Amino acid sequence: MASWLPETLYETVGQGPAPSKDYYQLLVTRSQVIFRWWKISLRSEYRSARPGESKDTHEDFLDNSHLQVQVAIVFGARTLDYVFNLCQGKFDFLERLSDSLLLSIISYLDLEDVARLSQTSRRFAKLCKSDLLWERIVQSACDTITPDMRMLAEDIGWRQMFFTNKLQLQRLLRKRKQRRGNQR
Fold this sequence. Notes:
Layout: E1 8-15, E2 23-29, E3 32-38, H1 44-47, E4 52-57, H2 58-63, H3 65-75, H4 77-87, H5 99-106, H6 111-117, H7 122-128, H8 131-141, H9 147-156, H10 158-163, H11 166-183
Antiparallel strand pairs: 1-2, 2-3, 3-4
Helix pairs in contact: 3-4
């Protein structure tokens, strides 16, 4: 299963906590945790400081409390926990799926589950609110979608169309037809 994973499992960059201006990179590959830093300072004693790099195997990272503290200070406890899980072989395969595949999966969920899923991460929130998902949901709920309905959905959005009741949709379609008739 792990052979399906890309070489780079996780990568992030950031600036050290204030007042530091130093830049850091954390890279987790299949076999190593690489922590790089660049000292940024106006002080003359740090001007000649060269960039640094620390490479540890996953097992060594789990035992290296100094490096763990550095990662937590620069990138936060959540990032440290995530890297810990990667080093222990606990991969989040769902996060690694493509958006189109996730949209296909999400479209089979109940609406309550879609709402719950949207609260789990920014990525899932974006996917659960996307027009592509709601177009699929509307298509599965409706027998036919007329060209007028499709044009209305493109104007107001598929999600809005799904949650709008039938009478309101008929009224919106009538108004749209009237406007098109007046423009001719």
